[in-house]
Design a protein that fits this description.
four-stranded antiparallel beta sheet; eleven-stranded mixed beta sheet; alpha+beta; globular
């Protein structure tokens, strides 16, 4: 259906230290005696659930990993209300329908160069030229140019009322000119602006970071980070329990009770786990069979049983952490009548095990679909070994955990990316003219409340297609050692460690 799509996980990684004060902090205790570089802040030992999948390219899934580790940042960030907040840009203003001006703060790249308008414009130009395009630029054409000593002018082909939100995306992080080599390779090591600088990357196993002392937001209290990529959730929890880690992200719900209450933090997030049905080929090309699959699922069991209370029953694309959504949600539009599944057709259902609850979710889905008359074959792999096939429509059904506000913070952007004909992350392979029109109408609206209304109208059409069945809205459990202070618990999953995180 589409030859080019961009990876953009759902990941829970990100680090925009500027926004650290906007979210709740976890952990307690005093700072440990220094084993860091300067004796004034111990190194943090952090375990992340997803290893680098794209050689640390900022244009795909690894963008959130880099942000979560405090390496990269953009012109803007997200505040606790989901609005654009200053980051490398200290202010901005709109100049006509298609142009925005961003005034830069005084900041330095980790390789010593100044963050100038020319450098920012060049970095954004590289992002626009990336193939496939970063998720935040799906359907958007922009041109960035330096304007004077401190201003960058960004012009879009069509009016973009949420451009400051869009530029908060981790995939639009600003890097120095030396990050861009020949061809499409981008190297963030030593070329970013965040409070921590990558010094060593050991493939998909681990990475070392040192504090960047010239960070514009002030020196981080930790002298560095020793990061490990541990896909096995039980192993992450065990390493925290035995004192090998200070912070473990995405602790499985099955391991939550094994952690001391003081080391367990759960946070409502904008992440929804859904069943995506391939609407362009195979069994679920038939809307009536998609309706049958949706009708077969009892979604109440997922939050209660699989997630053991660390979640809420699936209500829509947006969950309870998107606080305005529930009051604006309307009934699905255009649902087909349920058809009875035929004999002999086997549907392929896939998911990944980086998030340990997902295989269990998929097993429950499999059982419920089989009870309704479908024959189901289940595939479970590590995410990086599964994503390309999923994006290429190789599966009939896919269980996905997706942060709906991760890419841009704009509720309309995830709809355009995931459910329109030209969407770059359209695992459901949905191509519906009514959906495309509703999303396009929403994209034109600048007023926040009216844009939210339009997003919910588009959601009603998407849910009406039965290409997506929301199963559960997740709470993320973060393991935090007693000695650690200042861990940032971010519902958008863009922040984990800030300048004030220490042990």
């Amino acid at each position: 259906m589409r030859s080019h799509r961009r990876s953009r996980l759902l990941a829970p990684f990100l680090l925009v230290p500027l926004t650290a004060g906007c979210f709740a902090s976890g952990g307690g205790g005093d700072s440990a005696s220094g084993d860091g570089n300067d004796g004034d802040g111990a190194r943090l030992r952090v375990a992340l659930a997803f290893p680098p999948a794209e050689n640390l390219s900022p244009y795909g899934a690894d963008a959130t990993l880099l942000s979560r580790l405090g390496v990269t940042e953009g012109l803007t960030a997200l505040d606790a209300n989901g609005s654009a907040a200053p980051a490398l840009a200290e202010s901005w203003r709109r100049d006509g329908d298609k142009t925005w001006e961003f005034t830069l703060r005084d900041a330095t790249f980790q390789d010593g160069g100044a963050v100038t308008p020319a450098a920012v414009a060049a970095s954004l130009t590289h992002a626009t030229d990336a193939k496939p395009a970063p998720a935040a630029l799906a359907g958007v054409t922009l041109d960035a140019k330096a304007s004077g000593d401190r201003v960058v002018r960004v012009t879009t082909a069509e009016p973009d009322p949420v451009l400051p939100l869009r530029l908060s995306s981790p995939s639009l992080a600003i890097l120095s000119k030396d990050a861009y080599g020949k061809g499409s390779r981008v190297d963030p090591v030593g070329h970013a602006t965040g409070p921590f600088e990558l010094t060593e990357v050991n493939g998909a196993t681990s990475a070392s970071l040192d504090r960047f002392d010239d960070y514009w937001g002030g020196r981080a209290q930790a002298s560095g980070i020793d990061a490990r990529f541990i896909a096995d959730g039980t192993a992450r929890a065990n390493a925290l329990r035995t004192g090998e880690l200070d912070i473990a992200e995405a602790v499985p719900v099955a391991q939550a009770a094994s952690l001391d209450e003081k080391t367990r933090r759960d946070t409502a997030t904008t992440r929804t786990t859904s069943l995506l049905l391939n609407a362009s080929s195979g069994t679920f090309k038939d809307a009536g069979l998609r309706a049958a699959a949706r009708a077969a699922l009892d979604t109440s069991v997922f939050a209660k049983d699989v997630y053991e209370g660390y979640g809420d029953p699936g209500a829509g694309v947006y969950g309870p952490a998107v606080t305005w959504a529930e009051g604006k949600r309307t009934a699905p539009v255009g649902r087909a009548a349920v058809k009875k599944p035929g004999d002999g057709d086997t549907i392929t259902l896939a998911t990944y095990d980086n998030r340990p609850e997902l295989p269990e979710v998929a097993q429950v889905v499999k059982q419920q679909l089989e009870k309704a008359g479908f024959t189901v074959e289940l595939t479970v792999r590590e995410y990086s070994r599964l994503e390309k096939d999923a994006l290429d429509g190789k599966f009939d059904a896919f269980v996905l955990a997706r942060n709906t506000l991760l890419d841009t913070g704009d509720p309309v952007a995830v709809l355009a990316s995931d459910y329109t004909c030209d969407g770059g992350f359209n695992i459901a392979q949905l191509c519906d003219k009514g959906v495309d029109r509703a999303v396009a109408d929403a994209e034109k609206i600048a007023d926040t409340a009216k844009r939210q209304d339009a997003a919910m109208a588009a959601e009603a059409r998407i849910l009406g297609s039965d290409a997506v069945v929301p199963l559960v809205h997740q709470r993320i459990i973060t393991g935090v050692a007693d000695s650690v202070q200042g861990v940032v618990l971010d519902p958008y999953e863009r922040t984990l460690v800030g300048t004030g995180t220490r042990r």
